[in-house]
Amino acid sequence: MTIGISLSGGGAKGVAHLGVLQALSEEGIKISRIVGVSAGAMAGAFFAAGYKPKHILKFFSSQQMLMFFRPSFGIQGLLDMEKTYNVYRVFFPDDKFETLDIPTTVVATEVHQGVLTYFESGEIIRPIQASSCLPIIFKPVRIGAYYYIDGGTLDNLPIAPLENTCDFTIGVHINPLGYLKSMNVKEIIERTFHLGAIANIPARSKEFDFFIEPAQLGNFTVYDITKLKEMYQVGYDYTKSVMPELLKKMEKVSTQKKIEGDWTWQEIP
Q: Among this protein's residues, is 241 annotated catalytic?
């Protein structure tokens, strides 16, 4: 049975995806296809390249990436991702989707036409940068003749690349709504973007065969870079807690697929 997984965006909370993937790996659940947006694209691409979740967490926890976010005070945005290219190149030396162990789709938003773009072949580093390019915070990423920003702007939990290609689909949303700690301008602006990003999640969650959303992640913010290990643990523990339900659902779908595969239709005279 082929298993596809969609990993949502969520800033720093994206490390919770690593906890989810670790729990799935320990159970022997092999992912056949990955689609990721923003932080989910980062986590998914590293995992698809063969890196273990705990090793990826170690890299993210080192904050090495932050050293390469140089200020850029132009009108397009505050930070520029350009220098992160060399960091990614260490982990993706061939810079090709085709070299990944698991077929992966990275989702970004094309700015001028306002449409989603699914990157699945060719260079992988710039699509990852584009997918996680938060509007205003980062300058849009140019790929070819087009400019891209965070894929979560239009769809924070994509399922389209998994439809008709996987027998079983898992959706992982790691950015549930939490309570505002204050009502200052910064909090309101962040909440406004957050509300837009999660608007389709209730409906989208029903499209997957299984949906994972650790409610405890609502206690963290997308900027909690000092709490990466805690968020990783939340993702891991929650997935472990729902594992019996997940395995039961997988068995049900697998049995149904076998029955459908063995069924022979005969034309009624």
A: no
Note the pLDDT tens digit of each residue in 107-125: 999 999 999 999 999 999 9
Maximum average pLDDT range among 38-52, 67-81, 83-97, 192-206 = 38-52
The residue written with tokens 């998914």 in the block is: 44
Q: How far is residue 229's CA from residue 143's CA, in Å, rounded to a whole number?
A: 33
Q: Which amino acid is at 67?
A: M
Please report, to the nearest 10 degrees, the dihedral formed by the alpha carbons of residues 49, 117, 35, 3 taken in order: -120
Q: From the candidates 38, 80, 131, 155, give the one annotated as an active-site residue.
A: 38
Residue 207 has pLDDT above 50, yes or no: yes
Catalytic residue among 80, 150, 155, 209: 150
The answer to whether 150 is a known catalytic residue is yes
Q: What crossing angle do the helices spanning 15-26 and 39-48 adopt, rounded to 10°?
A: 40
pLDDT above 90: residue 86: no
